Amino acid sequence: MDGYLHLSEGVSYEGSWVGKAPDCEIAGEIVFFTGMTGYQEVLTDPSYKGQIIVFTYPLIGNYGINKEDAESKKPQPAAVIVYESERNCFHYEAEMSMSQYLQKWDIPVLSHVDTRSVVKKIREHGSMPAVLSTHENFEGGFTLQSDLKVPQVSTPKTVVYGEGKTHIVLFDFGYKKSILDSLLERDCKVTVVPYDSTFDYIQSLCPDGILLSNGPGDPKDLKRNLPQIKKVIEQFPTLGICLGHQLAALALGADTKKMLFGHRGANQPVCDHVSGKVFMSSQNHSYVVDEQTLTKAGLSARFINSNDNSVEGLSHQTLPLVTVQFHPEAHPGPADSEFIFAEFINLVETTKRRVVNYA
Ligand SMILES: NC(=O)CC[C@H](N)C(=O)O
């Protein structure tokens, strides 16, 4: 059956539904992911909550969905656009096909869309509101719901994982499981807390360090939480990843802005100005920290994107703070930047020893 993708820029594309057509129109911000593999991780990354994802790789789904690679308990986007969706899956670990998985969760998939043309439109006009419909003509409006996404994906209660020697409190703005795994693999005990936890609550947990996670939406949606986040950063060694990096920058007084179409893929080159090395990184973001606003916040840009010179990570003049716009936990994508976790744990352990020595 035919389905249609309508972009707010006034262009429409025809495609065919994989599985059943949705009962109603599905709206979301349309974004594109350029990685060739890793669709399961992308679909389950809570940072994509409510977005319509276009996969630029023309064949998606051929190795199915397995038990291991989900980044959260369910797929998160509002809808998925592909060129070809493989109905069969060819992998010994596959439990079901991608289309079965998305249908189970009522997430529509529109295939045989001219994804190259859609991506060109997004590159030209930016990530924009879009609607998936069974009707060729769409008369409705393109205003997206302005609901807060982070509370929808954050844990409602505190959960403790592992019993390693370094105690990290992970602020859950919609964290990817691979971030938790990266900490557990490095001998950490991890306490995952709700996104709106207060400084007093965090202090009562006696952490050695803090991880501010990735998550969906505009970091400025969490304006009310910034004073608490600032107190936490000033008190404990902190690693901010993606949304967590943006929140750390805002909390300390820098600014963020929206990019035209963001970075979503597995091969974004980033230069580390401490080591002078360039590495490939996995990314998924629309917002970026504004470089012009860093100095007044005591921050400096340690990591810079080699394609467009945007800020990819920060350090602070005095505070033990590491923040990265890219994903050191990878999944999907290259693990070139996993050194960030080792560096962070080292920072936490050194700070811990210093505090013990002074006590
Ligand atoms: N992966 C993320 O944490 C994304 C951060 C933020 N939602 C953005 O789009 O920029």
TrEMBL record:
The reaction(s) this protein catalyses: L-glutamine + H2O = L-glutamate + NH4(+); hydrogencarbonate + L-glutamine + 2 ATP + H2O = carbamoyl phosphate + L-glutamate + 2 ADP + phosphate + 2 H(+)
Keywords: Amino-acid biosynthesis, Arginine biosynthesis, ATP-binding, Glutamine amidotransferase, Ligase, Nucleotide-binding, Pyrimidine biosynthesis
Broad EC category: ligase
Pathway: Amino-acid biosynthesis; L-arginine biosynthesis; carbamoyl phosphate from bicarbonate: step 1/1; Pyrimidine metabolism; UMP biosynthesis via de novo pathway; (S)-dihydroorotate from bicarbonate: step 1/3
Domain Carbamoyl-phosphate synthase small subunit N-terminal: 1-133
Organism, scientific name: Mesobacillus persicus
GO biological process terms on file: 'de novo' pyrimidine nucleobase biosynthetic process; 'de novo' UMP biosynthetic process; glutamine metabolic process; L-arginine biosynthetic process
Keyword Isomerase listed: no
EC number: 6.3.5.5
Database matches in InterPro entries: Anth_synth/Amidotransfase, CarbamoylP_synth_ssu, CarbamoylP_synth_ssu_N, CarbP_synth_ssu_N_sf, Class_I_gatase-like, CPSase_GATase1, GATASE
Family: Belongs to the CarA family.
Gene: carA
Binding site for L-glutamine: S47, G215, G217, L243, Q246, N284, Y287
Name of the protein: Carbamoyl phosphate synthase small chain
Keyword ATP-binding: yes
Function text: Small subunit of the glutamine-dependent carbamoyl phosphate synthetase (CPSase). CPSase catalyzes the formation of carbamoyl phosphate from the ammonia moiety of glutamine, carbonate, and phosphate donated by ATP, constituting the first step of 2 biosynthetic pathways, one leading to arginine and/or urea and the other to pyrimidine nucleotides. The small subunit (glutamine amidotransferase) binds and cleaves glutamine to supply the large subunit with the substrate ammonia.
